Amino acid sequence: MLELPFWLILLSWSFLPSTQTSLFTIESIPISLKDLLIIPIAGFYFLLQVKNKHPINTRLKHWHHYLPLFTVVLLIYAATSIQWSGMDKSNCMAMLYTLVLTGSACLLAYYLIAKIKFTSLHSFLWRLTIFVALVGLLYTAQSFFSLGWTTLNDSQGNDFGIQRVRGPLFGSTTGYFMLVPALGFAIDEILQNPSKRLLKLSIVFSLLLTIISLGSRSAFILLSVLLTCLVLFIKNRKYAVISLAIVLIVTTSTMLLFYSRAKTDRLQSLEDTSRQDTYLTSFQIIENRSELTNIFGSGYGSYWPWYIPDTQNPRETGQYFDLVWNPYGSLLYHPHSTFLLCIVELGLPGLIYFAFIWFILVKLLFENFRGARYPIFFCAIFTSGFSMFFDFFLFKATTVSTLWWMFLFGALCLNYGVSASQRQHKIISYQR
């Protein structure tokens, strides 16, 4: 019963098309009921946590590294910075709403993971991995067989041959952010638990097929980084070799299957003029403004008031806004990079927060040298963090970001929960 609200909202995210979700206006803000549901669900798990303040004994007290607290503090700062962002009232309200969604995504994941018994956490993450794999397989089937469940974007059809995999839960340019951690957890499950290996291998196959079928160059970069991490950061060399072989063999087979119909044209070059211009313009902004502005940032939404265009335009035209202009050059209508948002609009507080997330990711990765129980999962979580340099997560893509937070907090809890159990066992043995 504890998990039921989460699974219900996940089902709605996965199968209820955004274009068919009721869109209503509050204070000139277009709001989707599908996104709005995350706020009461997060509040529900928060109230459960407040009701029972007793910590779970099998976890270290600060297993979360205070990440939820730092996230809330940054969001409060971002909300305050809107005062000097220069946006009009409607955009101010809309961007404040995005901060509420961002905080709800993080807190929903944290409080749910915190409430699940440590002994049940592994099975929860495995169920979540299976669910993500099955949803991805369904989206891939509609793309591969052209079932027509979604509208074909002409630009995608021209450079990819068939529609790139996407659906209500994730898009073709966002799915890898949470699919890669799920893949790492699934591979660990195969190697650690000998039962039902055929089923588990099919889950790995489904996840890799979905990642490949996204047609995203970023997804291929992440797979390359993951392979590198498997070689360099897994202490058990036999474990590393087997996991590497699984990824290479299954990736090759999925590519042969999917690209028997799809084109590889868009994958033959990493050049992306729009994103390159956005990066160059962003650094021009930083270089040409005052030191005080660089410290405090220009204000959340000052250069990228993305929410209203992102919500309304695709519904009306089927296309997204592309470039916007400012005195320093051209920018995409949203930063396409969490890193850029942090350093341009949020200044030093944003940079510190971004560095803190990476400190946690790196720390989690180096746990593998201490013989971590979930080495591939930890490598995959670390790898997924690179997504925040070349696409816009946490503040946007609420559904995908929520699942990424879920896997991150799950990894932290599994790691430090095991450490607490080992420490408690040593104390008991010493007392005896």
From TrEMBL:
One of the record's GO cellular component terms: membrane
Keyword Transmembrane helix present in the record's keywords: the answer is yes
- Single Gene Ontology MF annotation: ligase activity
List the keywords (alphabetical): Ligase, Membrane, Transmembrane, Transmembrane helix
Localization, per the record, is:
Membrane
Pfam families in the cross-refs: Wzy_C
Domain O-antigen ligase-related: from-to ranges: 204-354
Membrane topology note: Multi-pass membrane protein
Query: Does the entry feature the keyword Ligase, yes or no?
Result: yes
Q: Give the top-rank taxon of the lineage listed in the UniProt record for this protein.
A: Bacteria
User: Where are the bilayer-spanning segments?
Assistant: 31-48, 69-87, 93-113, 125-149, 203-233, 239-259, 339-362, 374-395, 402-418
* Entries under PANTHER family matching the protein: O-ANTIGEN LIGASE, TEICHURONIC ACID BIOSYNTHESIS PROTEIN TUAE
* Protein name per the record: O-antigen ligase family protein
> What organism does the UniProt record list as the source?
Amazonocrinis nigriterrae CENA67
